[in-house]
Amino acid sequence: xxxxxxxSLPDGQAKVxxxxxxxxxxxxxxxxxxxxxxxRIALEALxxxxxxxxxxxxxxxxxLKRHKxxxxxxxxx
Length: 77
Fold this sequence. Notes:
Layout: E1 15-19, E2 22-27, E3 31-33, E4 40-42, E5 48-50, E6 55-57, H1 60-73
Antiparallel strand pairs: 1-2, 3-4, 5-6
């Protein structure tokens, strides 16, 4: 993560680049959306994402659901 004070981030949706072990903020904001549930995830609470798909997930269950969707569609990313 490359932000120092989450309270200084502007309101609104951030755009981030997901990387192994962290992420970089491309466009400032205070949250990202879960790809599966649409739930807002505060950047300071963001723990789950897929680097290959560049998607954020609100929980391990959401990440697993997406993984299973990829398996069923034949996309193993």
